[in-house]
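Good day; I would like, with your permission, to put a structural problem before you. What I wish to show you is a protein chain and, alongside it, a tokenised description of its three-dimensional fold. Here, with my thanks, is the record as I have it:
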Amino acid sequence: NPVRSTSHHPLFQVATVLQNNARPEMALDGVSVEQLAVFTRTAKFDLDIELSEVPGEDPGAPMAAGLVMYATDLYDRSTVERLTGWFGRVIEAVVADASVAVGEVSLLDRG
């Protein structure tokens, strides 16, 4: 039996989400409606990585926007920045060559 803690989600600690569905337009007669992002400044999980498709300059090639939320009692900013840098390297390598295996991408500093 693993040791349980109420300070962590009971099923998993890391969530990675890709939101690639179009957001529905809301229209009400005589009312202007706009969707707003709400940031609670509280991480739901130990580490929560959220990516969303956003329109790019080329309508046929959407871009991605991302957000990382983390438990500050477990991670510090520099660790999360390093993690997102590694993730960016993997994305760049796969975009440059779709046949590359993710495990072949070097995460070590370039230079």
